[in-house]
Amino acid sequence: MRYNYTPVLFLLAVLLSASTASFAQDPRFSQYYASPWNLNPAMTGVFSGKWRVTANYRDQWGSILGDTPFRTYSAAADLRVNVGGGDDYAAFGIGAMHDEAGVARYAQNKAHLGGGFIKQLSGGRYQAEHYLSAGAQLGFGQNSVDWSRLWFTRQFDNVNEIPDGNLSNGEPSMNANSGVYLDFNAGLLWYVLFGEGGFFYAGGAMHHLNSPNIALTDNGNETLYSRWSGHVGGQLPVTENFSLLPGALVMKQGPAFETDFGLNLRYSNNDYNELALRAGAWARLGNRLDKGIQADAVTIVGMLELERWMLGLSYDITVSSLAGANNSRGAFEVSLTYFHPEYRRGRVECPRF
Question: Does some domain include residue 135?
Fold first, then answer.
């Protein structure tokens, strides 16, 4: 059966042509589609199976910072349960993230509980199936810094001409930790399944809707910007074994913009014990605030799908002006996902992003 992908490709082109980018305040993953918990709360429970566990790790700029690179760790688990015996599902999840940056180990720690609802809008035996998912997350966060790794001008020993950590830094209002803050995220996702493994999705999310205070100073008021994001993508079967997985993500947080877009090529043996391989390339653009939109990195991705498991490896090649300092060596990333099957074959199929 042949499918007309013209509307899907047109929508992707419109989003890409309108997108602008930059570094956001929040941690991010190049394999954003392999970290659904951090991408969009509405993706809670959107998978084929009973429950799912995901883990992500990112190591960035080790070529410049040595043993103190930017590191991001994330883990999440979610499950879904049938509601009313039809094709609607309720979903629940829990996730946590730790991010640390630079010599002073500036760290962000977050943990959330989440829930969602998946509603079938239309579909039938010979029709494409449309679904709408809504989700929200509520949790807590805390930021911290290790002041012992830094020294200030007041701590410089003029006699021995070396920093002396035993001297006062003269910063009495500085705290090692911010207050524990409340954090609220919400999102929507629409997706359609049109046979032979093909699907298309579009979603949007708002993170930090309550704009929490993350100040490290006494009586400080450093607000964490709310972050909005929009993402689209899909799987377009080309032959019985090969398909294309295009996608795009646009984010804005305060004055910062970022967009990621690219394409993975997927090969599947289509056996009962499915083995699939993905390979692709993705581009990231960002605004440097004072110089407009510029290319930041190109990400090379390889993924292995083996029955219930999916393993992804990627590397960011720096193409911005920073390439002169790090010899184009950007970030390494790994993702791992486990899908636990339904105890009985479920009626609702979901995309495997």
Answer: yes
Number of domains in the chain: 1
Per-residue pLDDT of the chain (353 residues; tens, 9 = 90+): 444 443 333 334 333 333 333 333 799 999 999 999 999 999 999 998 999 999 999 999 877 777 788 999 999 999 999 897 778 899 999 999 999 988 888 899 999 999 999 999 887 667 888 999 999 999 999 999 888 787 777 778 777 778 777 777 776 667 788 889 999 999 999 999 987 789 999 999 999 999 999 988 877 888 899 999 999 999 999 999 999 999 999 999 988 899 999 999 999 988 878 899 999 999 999 887 677 888 889 999 999 999 899 999 999 998 987 777 777 888 999 999 999 988 765 455 678 88
Question: Which CATH number do you get for residue 110?
Answer: 2.40.160.40
| Boundaries of domain holding 330 | 6-340
Residue 108 tokens read as 């962000």
